[in-house]
Structures
1.
Amino acid sequence: MLTKISAGQTIKFGLALAHTLADGHCFLHAVALQLNETLNTMQAYEFLMKAIETESTRNKNHYRNFIDENSGKLDFLVHRCLHNKIFDHAAGDLIPQITSNAIQRPIHIYSERDGGIWKTIVQPTIPRNINKSPLLVHLKNYHYSALIKENNASINKISASR
C-alpha cells in the first residue's frame, strides 16, 4: 500500500532519523537497529541475515511471484544482496518482503521523492503470529535509515555523531 503523507508528519509523531552505514545493507541496518530490544545491533544484523536466507529458502515458491523472468533466480538475487551487498531494483521489492516475513513484523517505508513523502506498508504475506508494532524506515536517494522515537536514548547518540 502506497500513501502520500505530509513532510512534517513524522516530526509530529516524535520520530527522528537514525542514520545507517551506506554499505549496501542500509535497509538491513535500519531494521536491525530497531530489533535491538533483545539483541545488540550487530547480533540483530547477523540474525536478520540468517533469517532472510532461511525464509527465502523455506518459501521459495512463494517468492517466485515477486520476480520477473529478467531478474534471475531467487537464490541468486538473495545471495547477491546478502553476500555481495547489491541491493538493486530486483532486490528492492523482494528483500523488504522476505524480511517482513522472516521477522513477522510489518515494515513501513517512508520514501522522500517527487516532492513528497510516500508511505509503503510491507505486511508479512506468510503470517504466523503478528502482534508486534511495525518497524519504520526512511528512504531517500537510495539510502535507508531507521525512524526511531526521539525519546530513545540511543537515537540521540546516533544523530549527534552524523
Note: Strands lie at 2-5, 15-18, 107-113, 116-122, 135-140, 143-149.
2.
Amino acid sequence: VNRIVNKPYIELPEYDDTADNELVASESWNAHKARNESIIVDEFHGLYRSRMHCRSCGHTSIKFDPYMSLTVELPRAPTELGKTLLSRLQMMYFLREKIKPTRSTEMPTVLGNLPAHWWGENEDKDILLGVLKYGYGKYDPIRTDEEYCFHQRKYSNVAQLQYLEDVVPSSEVKEDIEEMDETEDIEGERKTFENIEEDLKVSEPSLSQDDKVVIEESKNTDQTEKDLSIPVVWPSAGDIGKRIRSIVSAFMRNLSTKASRAAKVELKRQQQEERSRMKSEKDGKRNGLTRKEKQ
C-alpha cells in the first residue's frame, strides 16, 4: 500500500514555544509524508500537537506527532448468519478438541429422531468423521467417500439434492439461532469461547418411552436394513445437521458426567488424606503426652 519504497531518514528539529504552529505542523506533516504515502495516510492519518514544559529549567518543547483514526461501527446484535456461524464454530471446537472421534470411539446414547429409517450407529460415527475431514455441511463428498458407509447405498433423490456448501442452509438457521439463544446469560450478554463448555452442558435426561423406541430402533438398524441394493432417500441437510448437534450434545453429556464423577472421586480422596493427616497429628500429640507422663 505504501508507495514509498526507500524511506529516507528524517530528524526533525526541536521546536520551542515561540515557533509558529502552522510552520511546525507543515514541516512535521511533510516529513511524515516523505516516509508514508498511501490512500490510508490520506484518509485516516493526522497530527496531534503535544507541549512539554520543564518546571526546573523552564524549557518548553512543541511537537506534532502523527496518528491514525479509523471509526468502525459495530453492530448492536449479531445477525442471524453471525449467530449461526458462531454456533457452528462452537460445535466444531468441541468436535475437534473435546470429542476427537475415531473409528474406535464408543458412541453415546443419542436422543431425538433419526434423519432416515436406515440411519444407525455406524452412520452417526461416519458423519462425525466426515465433518472433521470435509467440514460442516459438505455432505456430498461425505456421501460418496469410500471411507464411510454411506457410499455402499443407493439413493433415489441424489439428482434433486442441491447443497449450498459455501452458504449456511436456510433450513438450519432457525435451529442454530435457537441454540445460540439458550447460551445467553442472565444479563443477556453473549458468553465467550472460554466458557462455551458450560453452554453445551446438558443435564442427564430421563428417557421417555418414545426416546427408548428411537434408541432401540437406531441400534437395530443393521438387522432391519440388510439389503443395500434397495434405493433409499438421502436425508436433507437440515435433518443431518440436527442429528450432528444431537450427537455432539450426547458426547458432551457423557463428558460432563465423567468430569463430575472424577471431581467427586478427587474430593473424596482429599477428604481421606485430610482425615489421615489429622489423625496422625492427634496420635503424635498423644504419644508426646504419654512420654512426659512416664518421665
Note: Residues 163-171, 176-207, 218-225 have pLDDT under 50 and may be disordered.
3.
Amino acid sequence: MAESNIEDLLIQLRALNNALSKRMSLYKQFNLEFEKYFAGETSEAHYEALCNALTPEFQMIATKVEEIEEDIRAVHRRGDLGDLIHKLRAKEHAKLNDSVRLQIYRIKNRNSNMDFDDEIEDIQKRLPQTQRDIQELWDELRHETAELSFTVES
C-alpha cells in the first residue's frame, strides 16, 4: 500500500476511534440520566428530552462508523478491518437495543402489575459479554492503528 494510502487509512482509523469514544461517552450519559430518572431525581420529561437529544447523536455516529467501514473496504481494500468494524457495529447495535429494552423493562416492572424480572435478568447477563466483545474488537482496531502509526512514522 502506498504511503499516502496508509496515512489516509490511519486517518480513518483515528476517526473511527474518536467516534467510538464519543459513543461511549453518550452511553455513560444515557445510563447515568436513566438512573437519576429511575431514582426520582429527575422528571420523566427531562429524561425523555435527553433521549430525544441523544438519539440523533447515536445515529450520526452510527452513520460515520458505517461510512468509515465502507471506505476501508472500498478504497483501502482492507476487508479484514472492514470485517472487524462490521462485527463491532453489530455488537454496538445489540448493546444499544439491550440497554433500551432493559430500561423499558425496569420501568414497566416498577409501574405495572406485570413481572419482567426474567427479561431484566436475561439482559443483565447478556450485556457484560456484549461489552467484553466490543472491547476486544476495539482493542484489535486500536492495535492495527498503532501498527499503522509506527509504519507511517518509520
Note: The chain has a mean pLDDT of 93.
4.
Amino acid sequence: MEHHIERFNEGSAIVYLWGLHDGYCSVYDDDGYDDDVSEDEESQDPDRITTSRGRIAKRTRTRLEDLFLFTNAEKVTLVLRGNGPLDGSDMATRQTIADISVTVKRLIDFFGNRFAIEKWPQRNSHPTRSLRPYWNPPTALTRRDILEGRATTEQRIQVDVEIWARELV
C-alpha cells in the first residue's frame, strides 16, 4: 500500500496518493499479519462490504486527517491508486471507500469544492475517474432504482457510502 503527498505548494494544490485496502500492507509485513480482517468480518457474506475497524483502516483514517492541516490549499486531491475498474466497483476499492468514507465526508464538508477524490490505475495516472459523486446524498430516484434492481454502480455506491459514513459515528 503506497501513500504519500505527491506535491505541495503552500496555497496551491495537494495530491495525496493512497493504495487500496487489498488485504496487504507492507507497513505490517514483518508482524506476521497480512490483512485487516477481523474474525467477525470473516464470517460475513463476502459480497457485503462493511467499514473495517482493523488497524490498517484506523491508520488510514488517521493519516487522512492530516489533510485538515492544509487549510490554505487551493485544491486537495485524494487519489486511490490500484487495480480494478476506475468506477471503484472492485472489492479492494469498495473496501477502501468503506474504510475512509467518514473521513472523506468530513474532508468534503471542510474543503467543499476544493476537495476531490479520484481513482487512478496502478501503473499509469491516465485515465482517471472522480469518485466524489459517491459522497452525494442518494436521491429518491436512486433509492427507487435500488429497490427495482436497475441502479447504476454510482447509485449503489452512493447508498453504500451513506451507510458507511454513519457506521463509525
Note: The chain has five helices and five strands.
